[in-house]
Amino acid sequence: ADAGQGLDFSVGTRVFFEADGFSGSAVIDDLMPDGSVIWVWPDDATGRKMLCIGEAVIVVALEGQSLNGLN
Q: 71, 52, 49, 50: which is closest to 62 by C-alpha?
């Protein structure tokens, strides 16, 4: 299954991710228009990461946690 397919990601969305032996929560910093690649800033300060959706990558939006707006 292609993780992330059908999800409405946007810059500022908080997510949980697993990819390439690392995982954690993060904030989406940028993304490709087709959603195939996203860049995140992990909460553990390990530096910006590029995640290719569909390559054994799991990305799940954390409900109600966005840096966009006032929630």
A: 71
Q: Bridge-partner residues for 59, per DSSP? A: 17
Count the neighbouring beta carbons within 10 Å of the beta carbon of residue 61: 17
pTM of the model: 0.71
Tokens 């799991």 sit at which residue?
Answer: 58
- 25 - beta bridge partners? 16
* Contacts of 2 by beta carbon, 8 Å cutoff, 6+ apart: 53, 54
Q: Cα(7)–Cα(47) distance, rounded to whole angstroms?
A: 24
The total number of residues shown for the chain amounts to 71
pLDDT digits (tens, 9 = 90+) for 15-60: 999 887 888 999 999 999 888 899 999 999 889 999 988 766 778 8
Beta strands 58-66; 13-19: pairing state: antiparallel
